[in-house]
Amino acid sequence: MRFELQQCFTLLAFVAAVLSWTSGVAAEIGAAEIDAAAVRTAMSAQGRLPDDLARDSRSKPAAVIPLLHIVPGAKVVDIFGSGGYYSELLAGVVGAGGEVWLHNNDGFEAWGINGLTDRFDKRDPGNINRHTRSGINLDLGQETMDAAIIVMALHDIYVIPKRYNGEEYVPVGRPANSRYFLEQIYDALKPGSRFVVVEHAGDPMMQEEEVFDLHRMVEAKARSEVEGVGFRLVESSDALRNQKDDRSMIVFDSDIKGQTDRFVLSFEKPSN
Questions:
Q1: Which of helix, strand or coil describes residue 194?
Q2: Which of 150, 207, 208, 245 is the S-S candidate for 261 at Cβ 3.0 to 4.6 Å?
Q3: Contact between 86 and 116 (Cβ < 8 Å)
Q4: Could you give all domains of the chain from N- to C-terminal order, each with its CATH number?
């Protein structure tokens, strides 16, 4: 009798496990990828910050976020997200079952402090985890993320620190370890996940250091660096291109700020 009961309990446990697995698979199969319409719904949410609304037409997130190929419930990291513009939109599309990590270092956090204050101190932006670390240390763990995005910040890894000596700007340090930085992103993503790079386009005819001084990056350089750690380019978008930008001005110049020529690249971490 005791043996028969044990067999019964074992069978019930097995059936429960199978049902749980199949329902999970069904949910995963049935989950629709977040598309432009879903992003536009998040953009129309009540209570968004005025600065975010003003930025929408320049950033065109409905053309960028779908390149992440995520579904509701996903866990996404917004690398050097500063004030959290993209983080809040991502939180809106992944929903309550998802999670967005707004990653900054001290510099990017200071740069976006006004946006962070308005976003977090005066209202609830949703399921966003503020994640601030030092320098280029990401501290994201191994295969914890379903997607990653970095917007107009990858070039900063390559900028040579300089200081004005009264006559000219002179180097006072070296660029960050770009390979280490990118390897952390690769390691944090699950196989098959996407990494989207949005960046100010640089002139490939200019000296590399000069391009980085303008806070820009040559598209071929970005692709080479990211693919160099194992990613493969699978998609791109021209949604943020601006042929009127001759790429000769620093991106903070009032004549071009917010209107730079930008490339958008979507990379994938191979599944095998």
A1: strand
A2: 245
A3: no
A4: 32-268 (3.40.50.150)
